[in-house]
Amino acid sequence: MQKYILIEIIMIVLATGGLILLTDDYVMSLGIVILLVVIEHVIVSKLEQRQAEREEKEEEEHAATD
Q: 29, 20 in Cβ contact below 8 A?
């Protein structure tokens, strides 16, 4: 888990640096990065919710067959 967090931090730093170079504006780059982090958080929470629903459904099916 630590490995993925480190990779994510490196990617955010690279994206921020690239945006600062492209836009020449720190505030706009920071805003874009914040939006990207929020979107990523929403996507991850939806995927976790979907995975939890699948696991719950499998447990119900397994319990019904026993």
A: yes
CB 12 within 8 A of CB 26: no
pLDDT digits (tens, 9 = 90+) for 5-57: 888 888 888 988 898 898 888 888 888 888 988 998 899 899 999 999 999 99
Instruction: Give this prediction's pTM.
Output: 0.67
- With a CB cutoff of 8 Å and minimum separation 6, the contacts of 15 are 33, 36
* Burial readout 15-33 (b: 16 or more C-beta within 10 A, e: otherwise): ebeebeeeeeeeeebeebb
